[in-house]
Amino acid sequence: MSLISKTLNAFQTKFSFNTPPRLFQAPGRVNLIGEHTDYNDGFVLPAAIDRLILVAATARRDARVNVYAMNFDQWDRFDMRGEIARLSENAWGNYIRGMAWSLIQEGCELRGMDAVVAGNVPIGAGLSSSAAMEVALGFSMLQLSESDIDRKSLALAAQKAENQFVGMRCGIMDQFISCLGYNEHALLIDCRDLTYRAVRLPSRVSIVIVDSGVHRGLMDMEYNARRAECETAAKHFGVSALRDVDLEAFRSRAPQLSSVVRRRAQHVISENDRTLMAATALQADDLTTFGNLMVASHTSLRDDYEVSCPELDLLVEIALGVKGVYGARMTGAGFGGCMVALATKEATEALVTAVKEHYLASGRRAVTYICKASEGVSELKDFKR
Ligand code: GLA
User: Fold this and answer.
1) Helix/strand/coil percent split, the chain, to 5
2) Fold (topology level) of 3-198
3) Residue ranges of the chain with pLDDT lower than 70?
4) How far from 316 is each of 243, 275, 299, CA to CA, in Å?
5) Same fold for the domain at 3-198 and the one at 201-371?
6) Cα(220)–Cα(72) distance, rounded to whole angstroms?
7) CA 60 to ligand 1 center in whole angstroms
8) Which residue ranges make up each domain of the chain?
9) Which ligand 1 atom lies nearest to the CA of residue 333?
10) CA-CA distance, 315 to 320, in Å (whole number)?
């Protein structure tokens, strides 16, 4: 049974009403290059993927929100009037509560809703299941209340929910691509002014994502620590964000920095350059250059930013040993999660086999997803059950 059918069936079982629900989706993402640059006002090149969060929902007359999460077999219920409380358990509920809180702060008038949420973005694997959840729920709330805001504002509201309600100081990349993703394209996003350019992915390549199976608990703490180190570096250079430091300025003034902060800054500054070069290469259909930049990005994340792990390094090594793979790197925040590789369609099978054979050495099981660059949040109409 398809995810749509399962979600609609669950809606029928959980809410005994006659009005058929409306259906909304928001995708997860994979970042091709530009890692840990978004919160430094830099550049990123992600694509939305065909793994998504689905919401089946109807509006209510009052301000109550009743959400059933199929993947967890759990409910969250709250009222949008008055203060919206933060949960200490059911962490997924905080993404929904945070979204309602953030949209209300934006001045949106929201109606209550009954909803079932389900999804096939792997949870905790670094493919932005939480951003997809925020965006899908936020979009549903707005549509059901006939209170629209533009996509960029929705992305910003979702980031605010995550920063201020959930307590994770993420950048804007994940929410932005989940809102504005584009079929068959990656987006080069300038995270300072939020302008962007769609860059087509050639039809002869596949995006292959491999989940390392390492899902680290302390991710938020490490992530926030990296952010603080970048802020220290920016202060040293007298700028508001590392985006404003070029490699030349970096080289002349880096020796005064501590070794750790220097390496963090070196990653961010060089990664911004790599991301711009990668977008140009992709546009020129130069996949060899693109692939080399992906590999350089991985090395920098491993050695200077120190957010990779032996399992991800092994996956990259396995991928690079397969003929027809242009490049591979860890993707997302790191400390576990996924590797992304860009490979010719013909090489895809060999890559899947190589991972199966050689990843065993890590003692873990890898899961592979072959993904298509997809569109951002939308309402599904004329859907097949
Ligand atoms: C997480 C965050 C993003 C970004 C990446 C690293 O996915 O949510 O904002 O910082 O890590 O590039």
Assistant:
1) 45, 25, 30
2) Ribosomal Protein S5; domain 2 (3.30.230)
3) 17, 217-218, 384
4) 27, 19, 10
5) no
6) 22
7) 35
8) 3-198, 201-371
9) 11
10) 9
> Residue 220's pLDDT is what?
82
Spatial separation of the C-alpha atoms in residues 328 and 321, rounded to whole Å: 10
pLDDT of residue 365: 92
Q: What is the pLDDT of residue 16?
A: 77
* Any atom of ligand 1 within 6 Å of the Cβ of 38: yes
Tens-place pLDDT, residues 295-305: 999 999 999 99
What sections of the chain are H helices per DSSP? 3-14, 91-105, 129-144, 151-160, 173-180, 219-237, 247-253, 259-283, 287-303, 310-320, 348-358
Residue 240: per-residue pLDDT: 97
User: How close is the Cα of 346 to the center of ligand 1, in Å?
Assistant: 31
240 phi and psi angles, rounded to 5 deg: -80, -25
For residue 358, the model assigns a pLDDT of: 96
Looking at CATH, the fold of the domain delimited by 201-371 is given as Alpha-Beta Plaits (3.30.70)
Ligand 1, atom 11, residue with closest C-alpha: 333
Residue with tokens 């004329």: 382
Q: Is the CB of 174 under 6 A from ligand 1?
A: yes
Cα 7 to chain centroid distance, Å, stands at 23
Interior angle at CA 195, CA 229 and CA 208, nearest 5: 75
Rounded-to-integer distance, Cα 181 and Cα 51, Å: 12
Q: Position of tokens 């709330």?
A: 141
Q: Which pTM was predicted?
A: 0.97
CA distances, 322 to each of 239, 277, 289, 293, 309 (Å): 43, 24, 17, 17, 21
Q: Give me the active site residues, please.
A: 174
Pocket test for ligand 1, best of 174, 209, 222, 298 (most atoms within 8 A of CB): 174
Tokens at 72, concatenated: 């967890």
**Cα(216) to centroid(ligand 1), Å:** 15
Q: Which residues pair with 332 in a beta bridge?
A: none
Per-residue pLDDT at 1: 82
Looking up tokens 């399962």, which residue turns up?
6
Q: State the Cα–Cα distance between residues 119 and 70, nearest whole angstrom.
A: 8
pLDDT value, residue 213: 95
Taking a C-beta distance cutoff of 8 angstroms, is the pair 157, 106 a contact? yes
